[in-house]
Amino acid sequence: MALREEESGVNLQSSALPSVKEGGTSKEDSTAMEEGRRWEDMQVDCLVNIFRRLGLDDLTVSVPFVCTFWWRTSLDPTCWRVLNLRSLDFKTWSQFSRSFASRYRLRTLSFSAFLRLVVHRSHGSASELIFPLSSGASVHDLAYVSINCPRLRTLALPDKLMLEDDLRIPEFIGRWKDLEQLELETKPTSFLETVAAIGHNCTRFARLKVRGLIGKEDASAIAMCLPELKQLELSGSYLTKDELAVIVSGCRKLERLTAKDCLGFQADEELLRLASGIHSFEHEGSRLLGDNGYETDESEQQSGFFYW
Fold first, then answer.
1. Using H for helix, E for strand and C for coil, what is the string for 236-294?
2. Most Cβ neighbours (<10 Å): which of 84, 200, 201, 223?
3. Which CATH class is domain 80-302?
């Protein structure tokens, strides 16, 4: 028996699956039958319900190698709806990478190949995709998931993208009509276009996380394009009270606003009164002064350079 993942480039040969044998049973299967227990006797739905709660490391490195029944059951697309890649370490010397490469008889583990493997197994049903912070993800990876994960509701992008990849984010966002949550660890160059694409295409969008320099245009875009926004996280950003006021005034349905450890504003009575209609306004650690003790000014904000 040869198992081939055509979309990923990862070939799973019978030699790579020592406990999965065609026309026979593994040692584990035989022991279970001798004791009167068979994995085949367990309801598939029950096992799927267990597997869908596991991480991608267990689903790829552990589960398929237990027995034939577990391997076949793990291929149910329901098990691959949540693709949390951030929990994995793709460095060549990591335990996960070495275990995966050993199991599947590979020289090294490629992030792009692994991404295609798990996306292919989801058969278009993936609803949550979380990229590693620094994965080396390329525009080809983003294009691939934008086509093969049409039902995404939650997306977390890497913190570092090449400029040419950054500029194509709005194009990809426009393909996810069901998108509800987007996490941007750093504000992309195409932020204004991205927010506009969300407002135009994603009618269920409710949560945005972004960190960076939030200027007047950015605040206005959030207020104008995302009036239905319910949760907004800006922690670690640079923005003034004026930008916050624009956002709060435009996003009237905000239930939670998180702006911790920001630079450029302090939650005074005026701002607290303006945000009084928000159920949760978290602003701990935000301040007007920089670490050097000098008050920030508009020229520093407009320069586009902000370090944290």
1. CCECCHHHHHHHHHHCCCCCEEECCCCECCCCCHHHHHHCCCCCEEECCCCECECCCCC
2. 223
3. alpha beta
Q: How many helices (H) and strands (E) does the chain have?
A: 14, 10
Strands 82-84 and 11-13: unpaired
91-141 pLDDT, tens digit per residue, is 999 999 999 999 999 999 999 999 999 999 999 999 999 999 876 678 899
Task: Compute φ and ψ for 140, nearest 5 degrees.
Answer: -70, -35
- Count the neighbouring beta carbons within 10 Å of the beta carbon of residue 195: 24
Mention every residue, 6+ apart, whose C-beta is less than 8 A from residue 231. 206, 207, 208, 254, 255, 256, 257, 258
State both tokens at 230: 């319910």
Q: Is 213 helix (H, G, I), strand (E, B) or coil?
A: strand
Q: Is 202 within 8 Å of 179 (Cβ atoms)?
A: yes
The Cα–Cα gap between 50 and 163 comes to 41
